[in-house]
From TrEMBL:
Protein's name according to its UniProt entry: Kynureninase
Taxonomy of the source species: Bacteria, Pseudomonadati, Pseudomonadota, Alphaproteobacteria, Rhodobacterales
Entry keyword Cell membrane: no
Chain positions with N6-(pyridoxal phosphate)lysine modification: K221
Role according to the record: Catalyzes the cleavage of L-kynurenine (L-Kyn) and L-3-hydroxykynurenine (L-3OHKyn) into anthranilic acid (AA) and 3-hydroxyanthranilic acid (3-OHAA), respectively.
Gene name of the encoded protein: kynU
Reactions listed under catalytic activity: L-kynurenine + H2O = anthranilate + L-alanine + H(+); 3-hydroxy-L-kynurenine + H2O = 3-hydroxyanthranilate + L-alanine + H(+)
Protein's organism: Thalassovita mediterranea
Transmembrane segments: none
Single Gene Ontology BP annotation: L-tryptophan catabolic process to kynurenine
Pfam families noted in UniProt: KYNU_C
Length: 408
């Protein structure tokens, strides 16, 4: 059983703050500063460039990938850490498209990347950019087709080459059925690419069990790796040695230090490396994963549902002016709860000013994330009391709370 009192003690949480925004940025693991200092002072400071060998910096993206693999149901040595989530989305979708082209015949004739309107905009932007690169004059007829979330299954037709879906909707927390959609995609000859940005560390994931083609995700949200922490990519074993990297970076080469003029892809998921590993960021992420080593994802999910259900109950009883935007059925929801309010931005700023940290997503979503590693039922009730005070007494209705910050 996961000891959530013990995991809470592993994080730095400011006194008096109720932090319900771990779905956007996780808090600082207490061990991270010392871990980063060790890497900076001993490894970088004393070893300098010899740290790549003496401290094993080059191997850490694979080692950290294997630690993340446990949390997302992936096979060992099939998750690689590095770069940003947008880059990993581009890599995954490009590789999936290339797999279809390599099959030839009807598979190569498929032109559609299918996604849904609940997907994070950056994923859609990367798909748009890939299509422009591959089909600049439009003669190939490549298409990004975006449908409503509930219409994805009905649109998995023989026109579709790649299904690119974020499992948990960033605005509402709506959760797709990964196993069912992946099975239908496979049955129709479609490569499935999943974005786990709001899944990894939030809900149990079984990539190996459902045989997803590719998956990507970030580590600065529920995994608590810190701002700008590296992303990860998963490649199914069936594709690992044949997937073509669209971004053929030096470190994805089969022999980087042979300095060959032409690119040869490395073995397996190693070919999905692009740039130099972020050594300092990897140190912080490793410290965060030490906390995750104390957990069981089934325990995390059960406590998450408990916290979310309690929050919905308390807020709806106290704030009838707020409309639940998240699915009411916990099985169809990730680890966040969202409410709609016509002045949602101002209301959230007023709530934040009183020590309850959530965030806002346009056009009207007040969003709260629940991470059992450090959020308690008592904090959930206290947060609802503060939200009630803000909403019932219209404390949000002042000019200072209506000025939009660059980051909402």
């Amino acid at each position: 059983m996961t000891d959530f009192n013990a995991t809470k003690e592993m994080f730095h949480l400011p006194e008096g703050m109720i932090y319900l925004d771990g779905n956007s940025l996780g808090p600082l693991p207490k061990a991270a500063p010392a871990k980063m200092a060790e890497v900076m002072e001993k490894e970088w400071g004393d070893y300098l460039i010899t740290g790549w060998n003496k401290a094993g910096w080059m191997a850490r993206p694979t080692a950290i990938g294997n630690r993340i693999a446990r949390l997302i149901g992936a096979e060992e040595n099939h998750v690689m850490v590095g770069d940003t989530l947008s880059i990993k989305v581009y890599q995954a979708v490009a590789a999936a498209m290339s797999l279809q082209h390599a099959k030839g015949g009807a598979a190569a004739a498929r032109k559609v990347i299918l996604s849904d309107s609940g997907n994070f905009p950056s994923d859609l932007y990367m798909a748009e950019g890939l299509i422009k690169t591959l089909d600049r004059d439009g003669t190939l007829g490549l298409e990004l087709r975006v449908v409503a979330p509930e219409e994805v299954a009905d649109n998995l037709t023989d026109e579709v080459a790649v299904m690119m879906i974020t499992e948990v909707d960033y605005r509402t927390g709506r959760k797709h059925d990964m196993a069912a959609l992946t099975a239908k995609a496979h049955a129709n000859g479609i490569v499935a690419v999943w974005d786990l940005a709001h899944s990894a560390g939030a809900v149990p994931v079984d990539l190996a069990g459902c045989q997803a083609g590719f998956a990507v995700g970030c580590t600065y949200k529920y995994l608590n790796g810190g701002p700008g922490a590296p992303a990860f990519i998963y490649v199914n074993p069936a594709h690992a040695d044949v997937a073509e990297p669209a971004l053929s970076g030096w470190l994805g080469h089969d022999a980087p230090f042979a300095f060959e003029q032409n690119y040869r892809a490395g073995p397996g998921v190693e070919r999905m490396r692009v740039g130099t590993p972020p050594v300092l960021a990897n140190a912080a992420l490793a410290a965060a994963l030490d906390v995750w080593d104390m957990t069981d994802m089934q325990d995390v999910r059960a406590r998450s549902i408990e916290l979310c259900e309690l929050f919905i109950k308390e807020v709806e009883a106290r704030c009838p002016m707020l409309e639940l935007a998240s699915p009411r059925d916990a099985d169809q929801r990730g680890s966040q709860v969202s409410f709609r309010f016509h002045e949602g931005y101002a209301a959230m700023q007023a709530v934040i000013a009183r020590g309850v940290i959530g965030d806002f997503r346009a056009p009207d979503i007040m969003r709260f994330g629940f991470t059992p590693l450090y959020v308690t039922p008592e904090e959930v009730v206290k947060a609802a009391e503060i939200i009630e005070d803000v909403m019932v007494n219209a404390l949000w209705d002042t000019p200072e709370y209506k000025v939009r910050n660059r980051v909402t």
